Amino acid sequence: MSRPAPTSESAWMLTASGRQLNLLDPDPAAISITDIAHGLAHLCRFGGQCRRFYCVAQHAFSVSCACDEHDALWGLLHDATEAYLGDVIQPLKHTSLLASYRRIETRLQVAIAEAFALPLALPASVLAADALVLAQEMRDLMRHCPSTLRQLADQSRPWPLEPVDPDTAREWFLRRFEELTSRRSAA
User: Fold this and answer.
1) Is there a contact between 165 and 58 (Cβ–Cβ < 8 Å)?
2) pLDDT of amino acid 159
């Protein structure tokens, strides 16, 4: 995935830290880990349709812990675009109606990858960990879970997932980020 060409349009947002970010032509220098952590900690998974509030920051933390260690930073940031764009549920996001949205999301994901010196392609271990964590979340947080996902969740994590409050999830997310980036700079 290469950096998409800039657009002449703009759609600015003000972040929690006070930064301005053009969502249509994002500058990697305007991307902040504290804004990402804050946004994801206040965003509920499954369009808010789960039994209890469960934030995207906790999901990202779990994916980061479940993927290959050398991909863990990408695991933590794999949904970072949602901190700025919100969480559009997968069945809708992948329809032809949201093709423009997906282009905006791709531009933002490229800026995030550049901001944190990550490869542009999402690693396979992150995709696998995301699917595994999704199965666990469906089993423990939704009223209905397909039997194939339940079996996968039961095999990988027989104990139930326990949602935490947004402040705790934000703290876990930022602590994990510090742990991963300090290891990276020490290497």
Assistant:
1) no
2) 76
Q: What domain count does the chain have? A: 1
Residue 154 counted as domain residue:
no
**What is the mean pLDDT of the segment spanning 36-61?**
96
pTM of the model: 0.90
Range of the domain at 35: 12-120+162-179
Residue 7 counted as domain residue: no
Q: How far apart are alpha carbons 46 and 137 in whole angstroms?
A: 9
Give the number of C-alpha atoms closer than 13 A to the C-alpha of residue 6, restricted to the C-beta side: 7
Tokens of 132: 């595994």
Which range (32-41, 58-67, 74-83, 133-142) has the least confidence? 133-142
Residue 156 is predicted with a pLDDT of: 77
Specify the CATH number for the domain of residue 27: 1.10.3210.10
Cβ(115)–Cβ(29) below 8 Å: yes
Q: What is the mean pLDDT of the chain?
A: 91
Between the alpha carbon of residue 114 and those of residues 109, 136, 170, 184, the distances in Å are 9, 31, 22, 15
Q: Where are any strands of DSSP class E within the chain?
A: 12-14, 20-22
Beta strands in 79-157 (DSSP E): none
Q: Are 134 and 152 in contact (CB under 8 A)?
A: no
